[in-house]
Amino acid sequence: xxxxxxxxxxxxxxxxxxxxxxxxxxxxxxxxxxxxxxxxxxxxxxxxxxxxxxxxxxxxxxxxxxxxxxxxxxxxxxxxxxxxxxxxxxxxxxxxxxxxxxxxxxxxxxxxxxxxxxxxxxxxxxxxxxxxxxxxxxxxxxxxxxxxxxxxxxxxxxxxxxxxxxxxxxxxxxxxxxxxxxxxxxxxxxxxxxxxxxxxxxxxxxxxxxxxxxxxxxxxxxxxxxxxxxxxxxxxxxxxxxxxxxxxxxxxxxxxxxxxxxxxxxxxxxxxxxxxxxxxxxxxxxxxxxxxxxxxxxxxxxxxxxxxxxxxxxxxxxxxxxxxxxxxxxxxxxxxxxxxxxxxxxxxxxxxxxxxxxxxxxxxxxxxxxxxxxxxxxxxxxxxxxxxxxxxxxxxxxxxxxxxxxxxxxxxxxxxxxxxxxxxxxxxxxxxxxxxxxxxxxxxxxxxxxxxxxxxxxxxxxxxxxxxxxxxxxxxxxxxxxxxxxxxxxxxxxxxxxxxxxxxxxxxxxxxxxxxxxxxxxxxxxxxxxxxxxxxxxxxxxxxxxxxxxxxxxxxxxxxxxxxxxxxxxxxxxxxxxxxxxxxxxxxxxxxxxxxxxxxxxxxxxxxxxxxxxxxxxxxxxxxxxxxxxxxxxxxxxxxxxxxxxxxxxxxxxxx
Length: 656
Hints:
The protein has 26 helices and 15 strands. The protein has a five-stranded antiparallel β-sheet with strand order 3-5-13-9-10. A three-stranded antiparallel β-sheet has the order 6-7-12, with no helix packed on it. The longest helix has 26 residues, at 117-142.
């Protein structure tokens, strides 16, 4: 048997590295573990041919240097804070952002493989396969109550304790769920789909531009399915990212569209209008039938919502950003350091204790903010430099038949303002691989200054900054809102407006007391529930609350048709689920009282009726005492003057 010659090893290792990259493209929509294995193979085999391959890496070293620099600064910051770690190497290897640097090694390797023209056709085919796997798995997960990844790995049967899918409402008689494909979360899946939607859109647009109507329809079908799944996915950060990168690309290539589309005729305008109206009615239908979509769009302008906790996360992040400008806090220490900041918030307003406790604080939910905090400002600036180079590459990327525009990788810039996609291995690894392929499509070094990239990055960054300056200018006492559950979203909003804020906000309280809110009689008499207060007091270990629970109801002297009586049911809530936030696993009533209402202030007082632990470690054996309320004694044929509701600072109403 003739052994392979040593001289042939570099060529074989290059091929093995290339084929591993192709298998990686197929694997990452299906399995995180498999994708990491093939990425490791791609890197490993590439290192066996340094003499042949390393010179080809040179055009791609500059962007990679920005990435490695950002990770290196996190590592240096970690070394500086060595003594503050309980177990440095355990924290660094499991939690530190710098430990993810190896993911980026695939970036220059993918770029080298894509720079060889003979490889590109095969790469594009596998990108198409990758897209179809993401799309098909997403569509399948829409109709599966089980998370497909775990369901399949468990032999197509649910394992005890597995989390179910988030319901998205019925569709044509079928129950639907938030699409997550084979991923663990809907945000991760939204990130993967975002890589492809801009490319599919551009290909479809190009077929229309070239007047190839049959091909246009062929590509329009997967585009529409992608948009439908993307809409159900509910990842608002990904929506913004995809919209931004598409807008940037289209503006950058606006000249290529001039005088290229089919001549405008009455018939063609009619066809276009027909499709626009059809799509419009389809969107309207899905919106009306999907309560989750209604809630998501309705929450875009709200601060206090079940999943919109960015306000609290950034409130805790900004003090860290100012205190650690040069050296950062160190990798994997965001939760620890932000928890220290949260103590000052809780000491001022104890009702925020549970709110801040369940707010996800493992990271900053903002890529730039995260790296600027854990690695110092320079680490965040290096990421800005990388994205400048990325958008310069997007601006100069070719748009040819046969290729797959991979400009979707740019979505992470804007989407990363609201979510740490670069800390999510399931998104970050394909991001680096696809970004490398984008660079490899045009391997020539770009030395010119990109004015468009600077303008785009500056405008989007400033818009995000101004937006959060405005949102964060709202004091915590007004940003916090007790959760209300009523029989309609309209009534819920009305009740929320009648709940007074903390006593410190005297001006806002006076304003709400002076407002008039008229509610239809049918709604005014329906029962609603209001989030109450914890049975134990801060700090941790927590001590049993000794004060009675008290609420106040204010009826304006000028009210024409106010309620004259109220029924209040005190109920216990326990075992809160962080994922669903305010929906509890078990509720049971404790007491019910009815009181007569008069003009002015009316009070309700309730004393704890169960024997609870005197001292406990929060949140164990800690419950909520919440309230179900029903007004009565008014004329249902007339609009009802809805009373103001005051829970004080901690269910400790005091008449004013």
